[in-house]
Design a protein that fits this description.
Blueprint: H1 13-17, E1 23-27, E2 33-37, H2 47-51, E3 64-70, H3 73-77, H4 84-94, E4 98-104, E5 110-115, H5 118-124, H6 135-146, E6 151-155, H7 157-167, E7 174-179, H8 187-197, E8 204-211, E9 220-225, E10 230-234, H9 239-244, E11 268-272, E12 287-291, H10 294-302, E13 307-311, H11 318-321, H12 330-335, H13 343-350, E14 359-364, E15 372-376
Parallel strand pairs: 4-6, 6-7, 7-11
Antiparallel strand pairs: 1-2, 3-12, 3-13, 4-5, 8-9, 9-10, 10-14, 11-12, 14-15
Length: 380
């Protein structure tokens, strides 16, 4: 098996393609998956080398960029950015198609799930900011495609490439939409964050990292508890997002990503339209869309009556075009991980709040018609 070392993105295609089941995916202490080879079973056939998306990634022309957003303000309000994913997913569901995307499990691991209804789509909506498991979905996608079903697959750039390499052929009924990615965060860190957010026996039931209660640009993290309580914290003061924004909890391969704009294997790239001109910004969210293929153009045409779109004018955000530089203290941070890792302690140490910020803490219960706000305003 080819040794790509820490450039491995953990997609699992090598394990799926191995004809003798010699490769298993195992998680490290941070929760990132890596292949482990049973040398006693390996027959040196080279299939894993040929199927690896990192070792065999392709070039593209970079595509054309657009500014787009849903015309339905309710859709945008419940979406991370401009509502493009929901608009497309809704179209596929109406066509009796299948939609794939990332959703939380009950243990706060994240995996790509198969969706056929609007209720399932709502589970997929929203940014997760953590590494997700995709390889099990590849088997289901292949079955759906071979049955002639229309499929929209939404995932990270490396997951889209992995799906393409697993399938090893083009399908006219497969449409791929990748989400702009600045790197995937440690699953173990997310579990610590959720555990520490519990209030005694009242545990966190749902996390929404991109609540627009305080606006699109100044978004909040929303925590829904088992007793119905809602808690909102501005992203600048949230422990998990403070760490995420340092890139310290990210997988090593994210600092040398092989699937940026000119090496994308997706039909569309969709993400937040940071830098949108002020006159076009109502703070409900907008999306930047990169169209890479004819299928990408087709996707936008399917929802042309549900969205506004125009050519993107201005620079393209860094996360679309290049990897972030690995922090100098990355290894030191990595060495602090253990089964008892504390998101809060790591945030205080590696991502302290350098200047005092406003923090909004709203509490809502299901039996209250009026939202109770608790606002702490720190001195500037």
């Amino acid at each position: 098996m080819i040794d790509i070392g820490l450039d491995c993105c953990g997609c699992g295609v090598c394990s799926l393609k191995c004809p003798v089941n010699a490769i298993k995916m195992e998680s490290d202490v941070r929760g990132f998956s890596f292949p482990r080879i049973d040398s006693g079973k390996c027959i040196s056939c080279g299939i894993c080398d040929k199927s690896c998306p990192v070792a065999n990634n392709k070039k593209s022309d970079g595509g054309s960029a657009f500014l787009a957003k849903s015309l339905d303000t309710n859709v945008r309000s419940s979406s991370s950015s401009g509502g493009l994913f929901f608009s497309l997913a809704h179209y596929f569901v109406k066509q009796k198609g299948i939609v794939y995307g990332a959703a939380y499990n009950c243990d706060y691991s994240v995996e790509i799930i198969r969706a056929e209804s609007i209720d399932d789509i709502r589970r997929i909506q929203g940014s997760k900011y953590v590494a997700s498991h995709a390889c099990n979905s590849f088997l289901k996608v292949r079955d759906d495609l071979n049955q002639g079903k229309l499929v929209l697959y939404s995932g990270l750039p490396c997951q889209i490439a992995a799906l393409r390499h697993y399938l090893s052929q083009d399908y006219s009924n497969l449409f791929c939409m990748e989400i702009v990615c600045a790197g995937v965060c440690s699953p173990r860190l997310l579990r610590s964050y959720v555990e520490e957010a519990a209030e005694g026996d009242n545990k966190v039931e749902t996390v929404n990292f991109r609540s627009k209660r305080s606006g699109w640009k100044d978004y909040s993290v929303e925590l829904l508890y088992q007793n119905g309580k809602h808690k909102y914290v501005l992203h600048q003061t949230d422990n998990y997002l403070r760490l995420y924004n340092t890139t310290l909890p990210n997988r090593e391969s994210c600092f040398n990503c092989h699937f940026k704009r000119e090496t994308s294997e997706s039909d569309l790239t969709v993400g937040d339209a940071w830098g949108v001109p002020p006159l076009k910004d109502d703070d409900l969210g907008a999306s930047i869309v990169i169209v890479h293929t004819k299928k990408g153009k087709d996707l936008l045409s399917y929802i042309k009556n549900d969205i506004s779109q125009e050519p993107w004018i201005g620079p393209i955000q860094k996360a679309i075009t290049q990897s972030y530089v690995i922090p100098a203290n990355y290894q030191v941070f990595k060495n602090e991980f253990s089964d008892e890792v504390s998101c809060g302690k790591l945030a205080d140490k590696y991502a302290p709040i350098s200047q005092e910020k406003n923090q909004i803490d709203h509490e809502t219960s299901t039996n209250q018609a009026i939202v109770k706000k608790v606002t702490s305003i720190f001195a500037r």
